[in-house]
Structures are given as structure tokens and as C-alpha cells.
Amino acid sequence: MQKKGLPQKRILEELEQRLAKDFTYESGRIIGSMCSNPHPLARKVYARYLEKNLGDVGLFPAVSELETETIQMIGSLLSNPNPSGHIITGGTEANILALWAAKKSGKKTNPEVILPASAHCSFDKAGDLLDIKTIRVGLDRNFQADIDAVKDAITPHTIALVGVAGSTGLGTVDPIESLSEVALDNDLYLHVDAAFGGFVLPFLKELGYEVSVFDFEAPGVSSMTVDPHKMGLAPIPAGGILFRNKKIRELISWNVSYLAGGEAKHASIVGTRSGASVVAVWSLLKHLGKNGYKQIVKRCMKLTCKLADEIQDIEGLEIMAKPTMNIVGLTSHTMDIKRVAEGLRSKGWAVALFPRHIRVVIMPYVQETHVNRFLEDLRSIAHEKGGRKEALS
Ligand SMILES: Cc1ncc(COP(=O)(O)O)c(C=O)c1O
């Protein structure tokens, strides 16, 4: 670090120049991420209320009220107008908090949690942190949790089941109603990870898509992850943890006595936490309303279906499954999908690579022109590789 500080103008110029090599959302080149280009209103209010700290809630009771309202608004989209929860750093923290609450409520030795193979890696992180054994079970032919496999994996040490509503790889939704029945029958905690799907499925339902029960409507669901910084268009960090009721949240509440605003209870991993995130999410929910999000999801789905249809017309390429939400899994029986991903990357596309497929996410910032350009490049890569078996070698 240099001794004498530099003028602000110089810093801003240097940042402009050095950060130019990063991908931008506006370019449409980020076509494999679940993060949002934040809505302009969210940017504005986030910057205006940066200093708000919900770690010291006594100083910021007004933001705390906004947080309660935010959690209630999100809950009302998920069949529970009175949940208890927080806007936190992201889906990873939410999943850790859920397993922490499950461990506290389960009170078993050598605790175990059963997850579908498609569950996000944050559950493994949570398992390691909390000393909970994670048991992954197979999926059925629709890439959804196999209920029989879940039942078979239950042992006297099982404390929780996890279902995913919008899987990381393909956006699939597990049979949450059946998982709920199994959880209730066996007195287990059930967490639903709707980090991505939480801001998609309620609107798909309103748009007339067939959406199975995925939320608190299933009586066995104890908590849900729903991230505003994914399809909610909020700035990072904005994850969401919703517990069915206050009693569950209190299992992980910790008293912090020394705060300037007076004693407070924290039910998060972090202490100091962003109130600006809460203000941003609250503002977006109020501004966009259900209709606003519905229109966004409608547009994303239209482009997703176009992409999925056109991929199937490219020789050698296919989709893993009909898209459930705005995620397309692109695969091939004739080409090494890793090489296709490399080809796309070399043409400037930031795609996500999974063991058997490439994930394309049509986020709200992706335009039709971007999708057309992506398809053009995909066609040329498939043509180059011939779509033939030998390309696999
Ligand atoms: C289903 C699911 N859960 C949790 C997460 C983790 O979210 P974050 O990266 O915000 O911690 C992701 C990330 O993509 C996800 O897809």
C-alpha cells in the first residue's frame, strides 16, 4: 500500500480501465449464471441506504420492519403469509441455516440429511460445517428426487430431507408433496431449496404453466431458500431464508448483548449484515409487484423455449429435458460436451459446465439477439465438430 493517497479521479479512471476485461450482463455473454443484473431502482436505493446494518437492529428498527414485510411478501408468494426469516448473503447461507435449524430440532447423534443428487454443493459445505453426514440419493428419469430411494436412505440418525425447487443444473422441481408426506410420517425436518425457483415458479403458475406443489402448501415443509439476487433482480448479497414459523427460526437465534442499539437476536451466520439489501428487495417487490415479475418470467420462458426448440434442430445436439423454467441443459450423444463448452467459451460465451451437459440460463438481461447469436455460434461449433462420434475421441 502506498504512503500517499491518490486523487479520486485517478482511482476512478484506473478502475474503469482495469475492470473493462470483466464480463458484463448487458453484453448478453453471461449465459450460464443465475445472478441478476440488478434492476435500476434496486441500484438506486441500495446506494442510498448503504450504511444500514441489520446486525445492530436496535439502531435501524425501520429497516427491520421492512425486512419483516419483505419476508411476508415473499412468503405470500409461497403459500405462507406469516413466515419468519431473513434476507441474508445468499443461497449458501440459507441452506446452512436450514440444516442448522434441522440439527437443533432433530437432536440426534451422528445426524444425517438426505438430499437428491441434484442438490446444490452448499449442502455439502453445510454438512461439513455442522458435522451432519450428507447422503445423496439418485434421481428418477425426469431428474427429480427418487422418493423410494429417499425412503430407503432413512436411518435412525436421519434428521432432515431436502427437496429442490429449481435445481442448479436443470431447473427441475422435486416431488415436494411426496417428500412432505415422508417427512411427516418419519418426523423429519424438510427444507426446500428454491434459491432460483422461488422467484420463478409462483409466476409460472399464474401464467398457466403446470406447477406441482413446491412450497409451504405442503404441510411438512419447515423452511425454504429463496434468493432475491437470482430471479428477484436484487443486487448481491440478497439471499432469503424463510422458516415456516418463528419457533423454528428461534432454534438458531443467538443473543448479542453488547450492541449500541441494545441487545439483539441474530439468526444468521454473519453478525453485521446489509440493510441496504433489504431496502433493495422491499423496493423491488413493491415496484414490480406480481404483474411485473410475471411479465419478466413470461419473457424469459418464451426465449428459453425458442432456444430449446432450435437446439434440437442442430445435428448432434439435444436438450437433457424439456425446460421446467428458464434453464436449458444442452447435451450431445455424438460430441464431447466439454469440447462444445470450450468452443463456446473461445467464442466469448460464459456457459456453465456440468458433468453431462452445458447449462444455459435465460436471465432477464438476455435478449433475443443474444440468443440468436449464441445459436449461430453453437451451429458453427456443432458443424465444425461434425456432430460425429469420432469427435468424442
Ligand atoms: C438451487 C441453489 N441453491 C443454492 C445456491 C447457492 O446460492 P449462492 O451462490 O447465492 O450462495 C445455488 C446457486 O446457484 C442454487 O442454484
Task: Set down the secondary structure blueprint.
Layout: H1 8-18, H2 40-48, H3 61-77, E1 84-88, H4 91-106, E2 112-116, H5 122-130, E3 133-137, H6 147-153, E4 158-164, H7 176-185, E5 189-193, H8 201-206, E6 221-225, E7 239-243, H9 246-250, E8 254-256, E9 264-266, H10 275-312, E10 318-319, E11 327-331, H11 337-346, E12 352-353, E13 358-361, H12 368-384
Parallel strand pairs: 2-3, 2-4, 4-5, 5-6
Antiparallel strand pairs: 1-7, 6-7, 8-9, 10-11, 11-13, 12-13
Helix pairs in contact: 2-10, 3-10, 4-5, 10-12
The site of pyridoxal-5'-phosphate has 16 residues, from helix 4.
SS class: alpha/beta
Helix content: 25-40%
Number of helices: 12
How would a crystallographer describe the biggest sheet?
A: 7 strands, mixed
Strands of the widest sheet, in order across it, are: 1-7-6-5-4-2-3
Task: Give the CA-CA distance, first to last residue.
Answer: 50 Å
Low-confidence sequence ranges: 387-393
Percent in strands? 5-15%
Number of strands: 13
As a whole number of angstroms, the C-alpha radius of gyration is 22 Å
Which ligands occur here?
pyridoxal-5'-phosphate
Helix/strand order: HHHEHEHEHEHEHEEHEEHEEHEEH
The whole-number mean of residue pLDDT values reads 96
**Gross geometry:** globular
